[in-house]
Amino acid sequence: MSPFVIIIFGATGDLVQHKILPALFSLFRANQLGEKFYIIGFARREFSKVEFRRMLTEEWQIGNADKAAWKAFVKNIYYQQGFFEEISGYEQLINKLNSFDQEIGACITRLFYLATPPDFYLSIIKHLKKTKLSQGCGQGSEKWTKLAIEKPFGKNLATAREIDLKLSEVFEERQIYRVDHYLAKETVQNMIAFRFANGIFEPVWNKKYIDHVQITFAEKKGIGNRGKFFDGVGMLRDVAQNHLLQLLATITMEQPLSFTKESVRDARTNAIKSIRCIKPFEVSQFVVRGQYNGYLAEKHVARNSKTETFVAMKLFMEANRFEGVPFYLRAGKSLMADMVDIKIVFIQTCHLLFKEYGCPEIGNVLTIRIQPDEGIGLRVIAKKPSIAISKEGKPGLGLATVNMDFSYMKEFKERRIEAYEKLLLDILAGDQMLFNRSDELETSWQFISGILDGWEKDHKPLPEYDLGNWGPKEAFGLIERDGRKWL
Q: Which of 96, 202, 280, 317 allows an S-S link to 322, with CB 3.0 to 4.6 Å?
């Protein structure tokens, strides 16, 4: 790999501590970063280079698994103190970057990684343009400059468009990497192969055979120390607008024309465009929100906050393939388990041959597990062992469901590359397949905006739910009034 420098804005935050730096270190241990690279942390706290490295080593303890490798890795880490809204830090950053170019003897690739709250995106983009940092070190090197930006991309359609407009003034689309790490999950990527490489599934992937689909994104923990970021954002913006809609697009998109970045992104975008919009006056009918007990006492949370920690919704697709098929999506914090999965529930067509014996209420279910144990499961109906004897003296016949299960961990023994490792490698290689495109992003915000507008007019108290269950009772009513239930 050619030399590069990655400048991480928000370098003292949780995202860097738990995701980005561990991923970079893992890639370094696997000899995936090349011989020469530089990492610059940019944040407000006053650190010297040595103090920043010491904090990473002693407080974050990222390198505990391999202290020798960490000692070598940390030598590539530098620090720039600065406020995102003030230009002085950016001007000082220029000198550091120029010294790296001089050391290499060429203009090296620059990756600006925005790992800050979205409120700072516009300030950072503005200063990158004003200081010409976005242009590289000259001599046409701007073509090697890249920008990675973390979700949520704005707070509504208007702010998303504003951010996108500013991005387009400074960078071309080919330079922009909008990060949704769930697109890099192994199971999500495998869905394309699973659907289109296996002839037994694609023929039944439609309204004729599918009864409904459930997508669940559940977290056991609450907001922790993220109150300052989360309050005012909520689950709809933080998870539904990106993670849930991306998972939905993956299972509903049509077959891409080819396995290339634009064909795959075209298919994803078209899937999101086919979601039937929920109008503001329909929100109470199709969307449920809730807040876990104790949320208002969390640190940095407004005492009268109406920020939702749980959201559930019922969607329909306007694509002919899924006409009339309901999609039930839910996401929440402080729930019963850590779980992200997709369940495709097929129409129960228990044959007349078995009606007198009683068929299971729910028959075939295909489950795609994203976490914690990535894999795929298929529920099928089987005959129970013959034990009971009927009045006629014949063995009784009973039916039950059994699970056929595939686990990535059990099947593929080799080390699996983690989502952030995959994303970082793709950014450095210039592959945008697993990143949101501008029109894909705008389409998702158009859908979410209708729900936000409906909530603006809703002044009723948020339903509450106890920690460790599956959300407010209204979420159960959303699906149960259709004669279905959450699985």
A: 317
